[in-house]
Amino acid sequence: MATITLKDIPEDLHLALKERARKHGRSLNKEVLACLEAAAAPQLVDVESLLADIRRHRASIPGKLTDKLLREARETGRP
Q1: Do the beta carbons of residue 21 and residue 31 sit within 8 Å?
Q2: Which of 8, 42, 44, 73 could form a disulfide with 78 if both were Cys (CB 3.0 to 4.6 A apart)?
Q3: For residue range 4-51, what is the model confidence (pLDDT) as tens digits?
Q4: How far is CA 67 from the centre of its chain?
Q5: If you ran DSSP here, which 8-state letter would residue 77 be given?
Q6: pLDDT given at position 79
Q7: Domain residue limits, the chain
Q8: Calpha distance 51→24 (Å, rounded)
Q9: Which among 47, 45, 23, 48 is positioned nearest to 34, based on CA atoms?
Q10: Is 6 buried (19+), middle (13-18) or exposed (0-12) by CB count in 10 A?
Q11: pLDDT in the model for residue 69
Q12: Exposed/middle/buried for 31, CB within 10 Å: 0-12, 13-18, 19+?
C-alpha cells in the first residue's frame, strides 16, 4: 500500500479532522482516508431529475431560442 505525507495542514483543519474521527469512532488516519475516498469516488447523477430541473429553468425564461435568432446573432457578431 502507498503512503503519503501531508505538510502544512492548517490547525483548524487538523482539529476538524480529529473531531470527525472521534465522532465516527475512527483513527485520524482512517478518517482522512474516508474523506479522500469520498472525494475521489465517482458521483452518480440522477439524469431524469437533472433534466427536469433544466426543463423547469428553461420554462421560467421568457422567449424562445430559435435557429433564426442564432443565425442573426452570428451574423451581427454576437457570440
Answers
A1: yes
A2: 73
A3: 999 999 999 999 999 999 999 999 999 999 999 999 999 899 999 999
A4: 32
A5: T
A6: 62
A7: 11-40
A8: 36
A9: 23
A10: exposed
A11: 87
A12: buried
Q: Which amino acid is at 72?
A: E
CA distance 20 to 71: 55
SS (H, E, C) the chain: CCCCCCCCCCHHHHHHHHHHHHHHCCCHHHHHHHHHHHHHCCCCCCHHHHHHHHHHHHHHCCCCCCHHHHHHHHHCCCC
Answer yes or no: are the C-beta atoms of 17 and 29 closer than 8 Å.
no
CA distance 25 to 31: 9
Dihedrals phi, psi of 58, to nearest 5 degrees: -60, -40
The C-alpha atoms of residue 65 and residue 3 are separated, in whole angstroms, by 53
* All cell numbers assigned to 13: 483543519
Q: What's the CA gap between 66 and 70, in Å, rounded? A: 6
